[in-house]
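Record minuted for completeness.

…
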Amino acid sequence: MKTNKIKIALVEDHAEFRESMSFLLNSSQAYECIAFGDGSYFLDYINKQNTCPSVVIMDINMPHVNGIECTKAIKEKYPETLIMMCTVIEDDEKIFNALKSGASGYILKRAAIEEIFASLDDLLSGGSPMSNIIARKVVQSFNKNAKLVKAEFNLSKRENELLDMLAQGKRIKEIADDLCIAV
């Protein structure tokens, strides 16, 4: 009896991690894994096959085509593909660039294998799995942005009215005439 396993692509340049992870995924009853050592190899594969696996586990730092560039390329052609970053990178800029490029989750390689499998299940159930450290960075960025918005954009009613008119495409002279003020 043939089971319908979920096809996963593992894009990872670190050979030991790639081999171990693909072995564990292929040993499970739920997943079938194909592995690639570089983003360019994977992009070549999906272009030749004219299809993409349902899920991609993606490293960030790889030669030739890094994980962020690869994620963008995948999402342009296969927007329904779920991509989970699995990396050692904890750099804020790379985290946000990976998420902006279309990654649906971001976990660290140091996570226990059970956590990685649970993250895959979460991803397939509509979630956006993140390691706790990554989730904290995301939350903190929203807190920082909220403070900036309050500080930078505390405009008066008149200032907002003026901005609305500018947004409508009115010229400065027209605005001055409408508001009965000098240019």
